[in-house]
Amino acid sequence: MSSLDTLLGAPVRWNQAALDADTRTFLDDLQANILKGHGRHHSAHVFMSFQGLEPDQVAELVRALGMACTSAHEQLRGNKRLPPFLDGGPVRCLFLSASGYKALGPNVEIPPGEAFRAGMAARGADLGDPDRARWGAHGWSYTPPDAMFLVANADPQSVDADADAVKAWLTLTGVTVLAVERGLQQTRNFRPGVAEGVEHFGYVDGRSQPLFLQEDIDEEAVSPGGWDFRFKPSQFLVTDPNGSSPLSAGSYFVFRKLEQNVRGFNAAEESLGRKLFGITAESDALTDEEQVKLDRAGAMVVGRFEDGTPLVLSDREAGLAPPNNFDYSADADASKCPFHAHIRKVNPRGDIERIIGGTDPEPGRRPIMARRGITYGALRPHNADLSEFADAGHEPEKDVGLLFMAYMASIEGQFEFTQKSWANNASFVANINPAKTLPSAGIDPIVGQSADAAVHEHTWLDGHTPGAVAQKISFEQFVTMKGGEYFFAPSLTFLRGVGL
To answer: Which positions carry the signal peptide feature in this UniProt record (predicted)?
Structure first.
């Protein structure tokens, strides 16, 4: 029999499941959405409290919810049977927080980890998060959730029916439903007939993903060199301490509700472009080249153009499927893509070893997470061909954003490290070399969090234009954390057998 360490030591080839009993056992016991995102455009996230229930009552309802959960094997088989752009029906997953494990009684082991056991609110000061009292409505400000049940499907009616049934049943069992966060994927068509998932600022999202399913790796376009998007599953999966099989695995899961001020961001983005490029024409009188430059200013904030084209590779949108294996080896001084640009901050793609010396890529790879987020809030209106948003001057300022979700093997070493040591760290990555020879980059202008105005000032240089001069310009924070929690995604054998 293979050990779990062996299975997690190389990308999983799930088509082996028909022949390889160990791989099949592993996939049948693992929850969906970890190895591969569920891909559905509609979801509901039902947060609940077990307060007032006895351990045997909690175990009974966890078993019932566990029976409804989708396995990784079911998800992958369902997707394979369908044509492109269709999904394989509902996906359901259950996550427990540390308090949820405690509610199951002393015979259930709480997964290890200081961050997981403390909970997100207790770690918030180190992350730069607002106080829980400022997290907003829908229960986030009052009671920490013990569990979250995720329901995803291709159409909103199916998700509504599923979520309503779960809520009604939970209420009958004495569970308190704290909140239901609805996911609704915003899309744009940058290429004819191809709908790309974007966040509410309008940029392609979820592209720079680690791949640890061999079938996904085989389908990815690869050019020689560059960033290696292939990862071992052990970076995202761990042994389930309560699993019934030596192959039982689970994953730590971070959920954060991130509200976006789209109107504020767009105004700041345009102001930045006008200052950098000296553009004075009214918006309806811009030349094509002036619009390209304004688009480039936005790419200097995010690190890629709205269609996903990496700024380090082009001075404008390429109109092609964005690559995933690019790196910054040809832009070591960050003249083309700033060190502070969001996607460079949270995935430096070789910058660390280039700046501090050495050849070990692991310091820049270990914190990478498997992100599975979805947008929330009302969809922004499109133009006729769905390529642009049609709400200029009326963009939302609140109640829209991203439900950030990510799987990982270590909350401290992946999510918290990325937020504290990369996104919130004004010195990263430019000024981490021992000689301190480069200026500080400032915090991540998208997800960085700090009340210090100085770290919101960045140095902007358009290296795509010969003779361009660097300018120091502040870019404020337009993403606000509105709630969240640390969870664990247990094995199905645990969920379906706990308390028996």
So the answer is: none
